[in-house]
Amino acid sequence: MSHSRPPPSEANVGKMIDFKWGDKRGVGGKNKDIQYYESFVYEGVQYFLYDCVYLYTAGHVETSIGKLVKIFETRNRQKMIKLVWFFRPFDIRNWLGQYKPCWNELFLASGEGKGVSNFNYLESIIRKCSVICTSKDKRNPKPSEIELKKADYFFNCTFDVVRGVIIDQFTNEIDGIRVERFFNRNGDEKTSNHLHVGTDIRPKIVIKTRTNPCTISHCQVNDKAKVRTYENVLPKQSSDSYTYKKRKIVEEKPTIGQISKTPKEQEIDEKKAELRQDERVKTNKKVIDVIERPDAEKRRWFKKMPWDERLQTAQKMGTLVLLNNLDPSYTSFEVEDLVWCALKARVEARMIEWSPGSSKYYGRALVIFKTKDAAESAIYQLNKRCLVLGEGRIVSAIKGTLREPGKKKRFTGHLVLDRAAHQRQHQEMRNAVSTSHCSQPNTIEYGMATEWILHYEKSNACWNALYEKQMKEIQDVRSKLKMDRIFSVESLSNPT
Amino acid sequence: MESSAEKYAAFKQKVSRTVYLDNMSPQVTESVIRTALDQFATVKNVKFIPNYIGPSNQPQCALVELDSAKKAKEILSMIAGYPFMMSGQPRPVRARPAVMEMFDDQPIKPNRKIKIRWLEPSDPDFELAKEVKNLTRKHAAEVEFLDKLLLEDEEKLAKQQEETLKVHYKKFKMIEGIMADKTAHRLARKYNLHVADDWARLD
């Protein structure tokens, strides 16, 4: 790897930088001009090979985590590190499949290809990170309870960057490094966890211009960007650990060395932001398939109390809700399932039968909730939000009020003569009441009946006119409502 | 799924031989309906449709299942042809062919998948969805209002018919009176007219 860019000059970095090389390890490179090291002290903290560190990447809210596998100084006296990456679950979200990662789980990069490791400037280290391996692999020393508790992250699997799969087996080497280096250390091996080197008692000094973000090399970033191209197109979601990690970054910010972004990565970032927004919209776009309630079968087993009583009780208890704008062909069971899927409430539902005087479009149902609170919350939810049904119906809910049950003795349109006035007539009327007959045209009754039939026809015409008008209004609004958009489950690539 | 499809088809058959009766007095009972229609067809089942939320004082309605779709058609045309009285007059009963949605126990449509979705206030379609909701409310209010108007109309018609009936009754009573005390006969003799003994009475 060549470093064409001039390194940050000493003047730029300033003499206050808190840095010291540790033990030498050997030399490498074509001209033997690369000096490898075992350790270094940076900002009062001693880092060893195979320590895990947080790295700051400009433009990324999240830090990256990697394992130091090489520490060296170039001919130009540039301090470099090589890292094997740990992926966060959302970095590999597209490949997770059925795997349910923990919030503090990482995946060690593996496989032969770009994305396993990168070279980085030593200054981009934020701080140490403790990562514990919980693999049951024989080569892996079992971590203690305390170690696990203290660890920032753990990993159990690797992620093959070439095949895009999660593997719980560990190969002998990862990026040319013995796999033992990635497992937990044995007690006798020297550990440097959060060790502040005693010799280093100089005060920490924040150097704002320690590294110039604009001039710092891009070769590493380029490499990483290639990896990130597929990582970044995955919409990231905020996880539980989000705030926690962010806090760390804020803490560390004054001392971090920034890595500039290449235009390519910037572009990717923009794309990612777009996708993220898309994702936000999509998470709300949950289309629910109404399925049978878990106890669906039971509903058919028992004969229940008559509806009249149940409804009366419900009204008294305030658990009765009237749903409107359902499909009139829904059955009561379907309404119960629907309420279950939408509100997670077990209810008893009864469709109101369609009658010739009522609208063909609007289906209504009386729904009995278990408690008054549940009923009120349902009404609140259905008013505040909108529950859309497949056919462009929006369910509306009001408190259910039953008709006054008091039965009227007299029926409008049935005439009874003053009985006391005429005994014989009275007798005949009683006979008439108990029987049914067709009216004959030579009677007064026939004339009056015709007047009623006329009234029926008039009512019909009124209803038809009203429903026709209503239907037109419904269609006007519905044509504006993009049902296909609301119910689309399109993939990200499809334009909406 | 097959059995539910069969169930659905069987139910459709049942609907086709069922007649929907409305504008019935609350005094009409199942036995009244059975007696009334027995002369035309075998009544298999009678089911009154409860009125839970409609305006009170609504007439009764019922689904009457007959032995065949053909019989159902016959009854429909009979009731359409002549004003049919049940437990009172002169307001006739009305009959219509039944449809699926009139049954509260209709089976689930085979293979129907209901999809629902919550719209949050942040959704671009939320305002429109709200408009639909408001429209539903408005339409329900319109229906309620028209119901009220038509009921008032019915009351008016009934009142007017009652008045007419009273006048008729008075007239017939007077005629009966003059027949009973032979006034009519005396007058007929005087004017040399023939008087029949029997008068057509109301009903």
Automatic annotation (TrEMBL), chain A:
GO MF annotations, alphabetized: chromatin binding; RNA binding
Short name of one Pfam family: BAH
PROSITE patterns the UniProt entry points to: BAH
Matching InterPro entries: BAH_dom, BAH_sf
TM spans (from-to): none
Domain BAH: 45-170
PANTHER family, per database record: BAH DOMAIN PROTEIN (PTHR47073:SF5), PROTEIN ANTI-SILENCING 1 (PTHR47073)
Protein name: BAH domain-containing protein
Organism classification: Eukaryota, Viridiplantae, Streptophyta, Embryophyta, Tracheophyta
Primary gene name: LOC102661815
Automatic annotation (TrEMBL), chain B:
CDD domains recorded: RRM_SF (cd00590)
Keywords: Coiled coil, RNA-binding
UniProt domain RRM: residue ranges: 17-100
GO cellular component: nucleus; protein-containing complex
Any one of the GO BP annotations: epigenetic regulation of gene expression
GO molecular function: RNA binding
Alphabetical list of Gene3D superfamilies matching this protein: 3.30.70.330
Coiled-coil stretches: 143-171
Record's protein name: RRM domain-containing protein
Gene name for this UniProt entry: LOC100815710
